[in-house]
Structure to design on (158 residues):
């Protein structure tokens, strides 16, 4: 099958590559563009390790063909930091609250939390649980993650 060319904006930079028509967005982000912060856990849309924001919507990049992302605006964990290169309040809060253990779920968790706080700056526990319900963590037990999201919400208001 002939390769096709795709162009997208990832973390505010326009990038272009040639792909097989059946290539997953997850693989193209990692292998063609080097955004290895996007993780593959299950590969079937269950774990959220591959979560990114595409055109303002949170999606599992393992479930999307890269060809579908033609012309899209994408944010991965690599683009979450502040413009001056310091950590975003969500990243800082995850560290501060011990919400990172093995770290495999963390990029997806941070993206889901970031997406939530941009829409809802003062979420309740329930709203946080709903927002991260597509992200599985086998390590932390979720309590630290929820308290990190509250801490980030507080710090983002300052
Ligand atoms: S790797 Fe995409 S949801 Fe698990
Ligand atoms: S920190 Fe290990 S899976 Fe979440």
């Amino acid at each position: 099958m002939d390769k096709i060319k795709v162009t997208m904006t990832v973390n505010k930079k326009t990038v272009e590559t040639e792909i097989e028509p059946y290539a997953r967005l997850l693989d193209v982000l990692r292998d063609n563009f080097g955004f290895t912060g996007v993780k593959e856990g299950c590969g079937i849309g269950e774990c959220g390790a591959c979560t990114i924001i595409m055109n303002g919507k949170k999606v599992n990049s393992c479930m999307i063909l890269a060809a579908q992302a033609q012309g899209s605006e994408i944010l991965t964990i690599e683009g979450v930091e502040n413009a001056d290169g310091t950590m975003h309040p969500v990243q800082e809060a995850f560290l501060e609250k011990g919400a990172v253990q093995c770290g495999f779920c963390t990029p997806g968790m941070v993206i889901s939390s970031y997406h939530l706080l941009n829409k809802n700056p003062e979420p309740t526990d329930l709203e946080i649980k709903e927002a991260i319900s597509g992200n599985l963590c086998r390590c932390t037990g979720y309590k630290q993650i929820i308290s990190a999201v509250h801490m980030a919400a507080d710090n983002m208001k300052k």
